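Changelog entry: the Phytocyanin domain, cupredoxin record was regenerated in this release. Current contents:
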Amino acid sequence: MGSFNFNMVVFMALVASMAFCSSATQHIVGDASGWVIPNNHNLYTDWASQRMFTVGDSLVFDFLTGDVTEVSKDDYDHCHVSNPGSTIKTSPAIINLTSPGDHYYICSLEGHCIFHQKLAINVVMKSSCSK
Ligand SMILES: [Cu+2]
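Regenerated structure tokens:
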């Protein structure tokens, strides 16, 4: 019985430390600009380059019109949507980053993506918390 209690304490301490270390970040896409056709063509590339995206984080897209559509790199490059099923039309659209690697998002409204309403990010694995 004694060792069971001890194991429980160790387990709970482990869970607590994991919860502390993983502190998920909500990234507000475009910050105050939100998700728009940007005046500055580099808005979303600059925004993404200043951040680290980790598995467990989420993206928050705030918009008045349009949508958020996750696309392939090819679709991102050509502002094309092969899979309309991934479109989210309600704002704020919150997308959880569940897998590492490159992720691409565009607004699928005609003309919006080619005017730079598009976002590419690289998501990394959760850190091991060894400080
Ligand atoms: Cu749009």
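The helical segments are 2-22, 43-49, 73-78.
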